[in-house]
Design a protein that fits this description.
By secondary structure, the chain is an alpha+beta fold. The chain contains three helices and nine strands, in the order αββββαββαβββ. The strands form two sheets. Strands 1-2-3-4-7 form a five-stranded antiparallel sheet. The protein is globular.
């Protein structure tokens, strides 16, 4: 009789644990589906409109291409819209918006001359897991980056500056985006010769939206 009682107790405990694990998995799968309102954004995103974050990846890694060191501090998938006073003449692309923000620190690891070409307009691209290719960051929403600014930072002894680069999604939503590849072309000299290796940096977004 005692064996039968213990048998049913064991089954009950097993069922409870299975149920709890199933509920936990369901709860985990929901994370990232419901965005949170962005407040106190590092680059003032909340000051120019209303934006919601779906997912965020932090401390992606540090990489090198030629004389440039690249540290990816964070990347986030965001949905929202800019308020009227901040829109440009072509406001159709800014309302509403699906985007990826990438926060990057750049610095030089040696002295360079002005014969090097490297900028956010020509050297930064993003490819999504859905197959969308974004050729360059949006110029209105992104920081400016070029060799002159990097040289100035180095010459004044300043630490590397954190910069934001915003990639506008056209065929993908922030909600469905799970991972992306940040493509950084190597700097080149005036002859067009590469001074390093092209970078392909994989970004896997966290399932939470902290």
């Amino acid at each position: 009789m005692k064996k039968i009682i213990w048998f049913f107790i064991a089954i009950s405990v097993s069922f409870m644990l299975t149920s709890c694990n199933s509920d936990a998995k369901k709860e985990s799968s929901k994370q990232g589906d419901d965005p949170i309102l962005i407040k106190d954004h590092a680059f003032g995103l909340d000051s120019i409109g209303t934006f919601y974050r779906y997912r965020k990846a932090e401390n992606v890694g540090t990489f090198k291409t030629g004389p440039i060191i690249v540290e990816i501090e964070a990347a986030e998938t965001v949905q929202g819209r800019i308020t009227t006073e901040y829109r440009t003449s072509d406001d159709t692309i800014y309302n509403p918006m699906e985007l990826v923000n990438v926060h990057i620190r750049f610095k030089l690891n040696k002295e360079v001359n002005d014969n090097i070409s490297f900028s956010n307009e020509k050297h930064l691209h993003l490819k999504t897991n859905t197959g969308e290719m974004i050729k360059q960051p949006d110029q209105f929403m992104s920081s400016v980056l070029n060799i002159s600014t990097l040289k100035n930072t180095q010459e004044t002894g300043m630490d590397s500056h954190l910069r934001q680069f915003t990639f506008l999604l056209k065929k993908t939503t922030a909600k469905e985006l799970k991972n992306a590849t940040l493509l950084i072309d190597a700097p080149v000299n005036r002859s067009g010769d590469s001074l390093g290796k092209d970078l392909e940096i994989e970004i896997d977004f966290h399932k939470d939206n902290s």
